[in-house]
Design brief:
This protein is α/β, with parallel strands linked by helices. It has one domain. It is built from 12 helices and 8 strands. The strands form 2 sheets. The chain has a 5-stranded parallel beta sheet. Strands 3-4-8 form a 3-stranded antiparallel beta sheet, sandwiched between helices. A hairpin with a 1-residue loop joins strand 3 and strand 4. Helix 3 packs antiparallel against helix 9 and helix 9 packs across helix 10. The chain is globular and about 60 Å long.
Amino acid sequence: MFDDDKDIHLSLDEAREELRIRWNDNNLRNKIETEIGSYFWPEFKNGPRGLIWKPIITPDNSFDLFIKLAEYIGTKPLAFEFLGSMYLSINEEKRNLGQLRINYDDKNTMNLIDLHKWNKKKMSDIIIKTGGSLVDFHHSLLKKIDCSIEPIDKTGWTEKIGKPSDWYYYFLLHFVAHGIWFENIEPYNEDGSEHPFIKDVTNPTIQKIKEKFGLNPLIVRLYPLNQSEEENFYWWSYPKNVNDWIVKYAKENNLTFKKVDLK
């Protein structure tokens, strides 16, 4: 069990130096690629990569930070999606794709979808209140920022391998020598209980990789540990130009705002 944050996450500078060493170790890279076999991502072949992998890629403030961090460590930023994953309103990351966090006079949420209707449905199937795909809506937001990254859906890759406990091994192997994954892995829930996926899948997979290759996957926190509610709201909200466009869109389509109390 990885109890300490440092057991899982490296600092940005630690990860940058470690990736430089590992990427230049051709023997190590060859071993990893052989182990991954046909499941190896071609996007990771020709240079070190920085990856963000979300249910749907949206240009919120955490995405903007990711691009800067990936470039700082000298990697090409890549954005993968899991459009075949299930929408769960209890999952903060997924809920915020359908219930946007907006700055309008004050901090607000705005329901882009019917949260109850689409709960436990595939991301790729969800239709927003104004018609059209939830995926297309968020991709349209990407066009409003200065970003050349094209999201890549890896649902088919996971389905080819099988259940998460199977594909997660090959997923994490890509970050032993070929890249860095930007993600927050929280072993415990807010009530102090162990997170079941971290306990049953993530930790055993990291341990398996360490036992076989003597190294942990390179993982860097996407945003700080122990942040305040206001900071949390910030990372899920949008840069000003995107935020202002969403506000205009909501007004034009009679979508309502609900003030958020962060106290």
